[in-house]
Design goal:
Rossmann fold, single chain, 425 residues, Immunoglobulin-like, alpha/beta, five-stranded antiparallel β-sheet, six-stranded parallel β-sheet, 16 strands, 32% helix
Length: 425
């Protein structure tokens, strides 16, 4: 069954989605308990976003056994979407010298965690260098502390940039579609840069028709608050789960296609929608510190994708320069290591200043009395909760040199100072 684009039935379908969601009882994320009418409405929305032709919905992604980040959030009813607008793939933007109000919306990939620069930082610095005076807006201005598992961390690798945004560790599109209207109305962004949807699929198994409907509702709510808003939708980048879980990989591919379809079908001359290909060039092994979250090199690639769209579609700034630099990864802060002799023979106590974002520390040691010239790396890393740590089995009377290397996930960074101790006899 096919419908011509622009028919009121598409808008009606979206309305039915919202009505059905309101009439259903409390709904946990990832669980659909609507009747046949809601299911039919969801299918209609999927049709609209796929180019007004019937589309097969992808299966729900089941929770992987591999650990990842994200937290349960509460969903709610979404704003009613308007009738499908006339497509407009590009639109004139602001000159590069203009001041632009930008709100970035995203989950943990965008918010970042303790010790990060974030891709917002990379984009902001790039636009500033281009002569753009970006005004970053939104309710948040902090990182997630990945060691203590709390929000509100301020330990940016470089805090000298405008950090306001609308990002939260574990944010879902399902939740944000109901909040975005009020936030756009309050912070009045000219540009909305969005990278959402990973947690919806990975943690809650939201179906493809629902993902498409939620995206349409998100766009409609943002426009209702600010009709001339410009929107850039980021694609879900690859991660360790898309490499190891074929069902989840298919779900991500399906939603990325919905993002492209939404941009093609819902973009207008008044409120254009463009797509950032932020997953292009991302290496799971080299650009992600835990298989999901960006390290310094991953930040640059995502920032570059959004910068390229802002330049090409909206004439805001220039494309991100190539080739990309290859930056050091891992925590950049040097820990301060101290060592004291223990009362017991052959033992010493190590203590150190914590490094932002470092969830482990490798110990390096060499016996100076035995004229060892190279440090030996101990097999097992220390965790923050093991500070201070007592080392044993030292040769009584020998003098040892120690140093620590801070690590965040698979990325190990700066070393501490070298500290020495003579093992007690």
């Amino acid at each position: 069954m096919t419908w011509p684009c622009g028919q009121r039935r598409v808008a009606i379908a979206i309305v039915l989605v919202e009505v059905g969601m309101r009439q259903s009882a409390s709904r946990w994320l990832g669980t659909l308990q609507c009747g046949r009418r809601l299911a039919a409405a969801l299918a209609m929305v999927a049709v609209a976003l796929a180019g007004c032709t019937a589309a097969t919905a992808g299966g729900s992604a089941k929770r992987s056994a591999v650990a990842s980040t994200g937290r349960r959030g509460a969903g709610g009813a979404s704003a009613t979407a308007s009738a499908p607008p006339t497509p407009s793939p590009t639109a004139p933007g602001r000159p590069a010298s203009a001041s632009a109000r930008i709100m970035i919306v995203g989950d943990s990939i965008t918010e970042g965690s303790a010790g990060d620069y974030t891709w917002q930082y990379r984009l902001y610095k790039h636009l500033l260098a281009d002569g753009v005076r970006p005004r970053m807006v939104g309710p948040s201005h902090w990182l997630f502390n990945n060691v203590k598992k709390v929000e509100g961390d301020q330990s940016y690798a470089d805090p000298n940039f405008e950090r306001a945004n609308d990002t939260t560790w574990g944010m879902t599109l399902l939740r944000e579609k109901d909040a975005i209207g009020a936030r756009v109305a309050k912070y009045r962004p000219d540009y909305l840069l969005v990278l959402l949807g990973l947690d919806d699929m990975f943690w809650y198994g939201i179906s493809q028709p629902d993902m498409a409907a939620n995206l349409a509702s998100f766009i409609a709510a943002a426009r209702a608050a600010r009709p001339r808003i410009r929107i850039v939708l980021g694609l879900i980048p690859p991660d360790i789960h898309t490499q190891t879980n074929p069902v989840f990989a298919a779900s991500v591919a399906g939603f990325n296609q919905s993002i492209r379809s939404a941009a093609a079908q819902l973009s207008t001359a008044t409120s254009p929608v463009a797509v950032a290909h932020d997953g292009s060039g991302i290496s799971v092994a080299a650009d992600l510190w835990d298989g999901t979250h960006l390290n310094a090199n991953g930040e640059i690639k995502v920032a570059a994708a959004f910068a390229d769209v802002l330049a090409a579609t909206f004439h805001l700034g220039s494309a991100y320069p190539r080739p990309f630099p290859v930056l050091p990864t891992g925590p950049p802060v040097h820990s301060r290591l101290t060592i004291t002799s223990s009362a017991a023979a052959g033992r010493a106590k190590l203590s150190w200043s914590p490094v932002p974002g470092a969830a482990s520390y490798y110990v390096y040691v060499k016996d100076l009395t035995q004229a060892e010239t190279k440090f030996r790396k101990l097999t097992w890393p220390l965790r923050p909760r093991q500070n201070p740590w007592t080392v044993s089995l030292l040769t009584p009377g020998d003098t040892y040199a120690f140093k620590l290397q801070a690590c965040k996930g698979v990325d190990c960074g700066a070393f501490s100072n070298v500290a020495t101790v003579t093992a007690p006899s």
